[in-house]
Design brief:
Blueprint (H helix, E strand, L loop, with lengths): L2 E4 L6 E6 L2 E6 L7 H15 L2 H5 L18 H11 L5 H14 L3 H6 L2 H7 L6 H22 L19 H8 L7 H12 L8 H10 L7 H11 L5 H14 L18 H20 L10 H4 L15
Antiparallel strand pairs: 1-2, 2-3
Helix pairs in contact: 1-12, 3-4, 3-7, 3-9, 6-7, 8-9, 10-12
Length: 317
């Protein structure tokens, strides 16, 4: 028979014992479970809609589906556009991508173009010289892999088809990160959106929200991505990635988190503390008829999330 009781001096500690065996369990913060990820996803779908319905048809799950116009591999489009998105806005990176496609419809043409011309075409996206050099190196490497993968056919375009036979998503991520200048986030974005793999890229919004919620431990963006890759069920990785980014742009923003109106507040370590603190302030005002003398900070000031450490590497995503 298992007996559970709260200790008198420390009610947050639950004492469980059966006969002479006694176990102490810290009940201060409930641990997140797989069920929580379902709950988080469903609540965000109720707020923003289901991204799987809107974008799911665009996720390519087979090599035949990934064949674009002229036999080009659309997964390469995803890879290049992800590189262009680094350290700039979505709008500017997309304009830079369209500039490339309008001037050089095929990636084989980009391989042969002058690097300075490529940099001029993508200048609106920032870091043009660095990105142009990276893109040309990556395309050349992909072309070499494509020829090695299918030597019987004269390859004309660089593709990612050499990854088709790899069943492990983690191995696909590792192979993508072997490409020059490709880091964990770029690899995960390419795998998720270009190859239909069950991966979970972590950007600045997802890092901020998951750390605040207590879903991941503070650290580098790469460490959080690795942790969440193992925790989040495969079927939720695509919708939850997009939903958390949307939530980070509109509710749990970098400038100020709106915990009071957040649908995830009760599931969030930060949200619970902030809402509880506000209730205490209101109760004190009601009882005394006066606002508390001590300054009440904003949500963002109350529970700051330490900025992810900057690690200088060859990849800059």
């Amino acid at each position: 028979m298992l007996h559970i009781e709260r200790t008198r001096q420390h009610p947050e500690i639950t004492r469980c014992f059966t006969f002479e065996i006694c176990i102490f369990v810290d009940m201060t913060e409930p641990s997140q479970t797989m069920a929580d990820f379902d709950t988080i996803t469903n609540r965000l779908i109720g707020l923003y809609g289901d991204p799987s319905e809107e974008f799911g048809c665009k996720i390519h799950s087979s090599s035949t589906a990934r064949n674009g116009p002229h036999g080009n591999d659309e997964a390469v489009d995803v890879l290049v556009e992800t590189i262009l998105s680094q350290n700039t806005t979505d709008k500017n990176s997309h304009i830079a991508f369209l500039n490339i496609k309008q001037r050089w419809p095929l990636w084989s043409q980009v391989i042969k173009c002058d690097e300075k011309d490529l940099a001029d075409a993508i200048r609106i996206g920032g870091l043009a010289v660095i990105k142009a050099a990276r893109i040309k190196k990556i395309l050349n490497t992909l072309y070499e892999h494509t020829v090695e993968h299918d030597p019987k056919h004269a390859a004309t375009e660089p593709t990612l088809h050499f990854l088709d036979d790899i069943t492990s998503d983690s191995e696909v991520l590792a192979r993508l990160q072997e490409l020059p200048g490709v880091g964990p986030k770029t690899a995960a974005c390419t795998a998720l959106f270009g190859l239909g793999r069950k991966c979970f890229p972590v950007d600045t919004h997802i890092y901020r929200i998951t750390v605040k919620m207590g879903l991941a431990k503070p650290g580098s963006r790469e460490s959080v991505q690795t942790e969440l890759e193992d925790l989040i069920p495969a079927h939720l990785k695509f919708p939850l990635h997009l939903l958390l980014i949307e939530h980070g742009r509109h509710v749990c923003t970098a400038r100020q988190a709106m915990c009071g109106s957040c649908v995830l507040a009760d599931l969030c370590a930060t949200g619970r503390k902030t809402v509880s603190r506000r209730k205490a302030v209101k109760k004190e005002e009601k009882e005394t008829g006066e606002p508390p003398a001590k300054k009440v900070h904003t949500d963002a000031e109350e529970v700051p999330v330490k900025a992810e450490p900057h690690v200088k590497t060859e990849a800059f995503d």
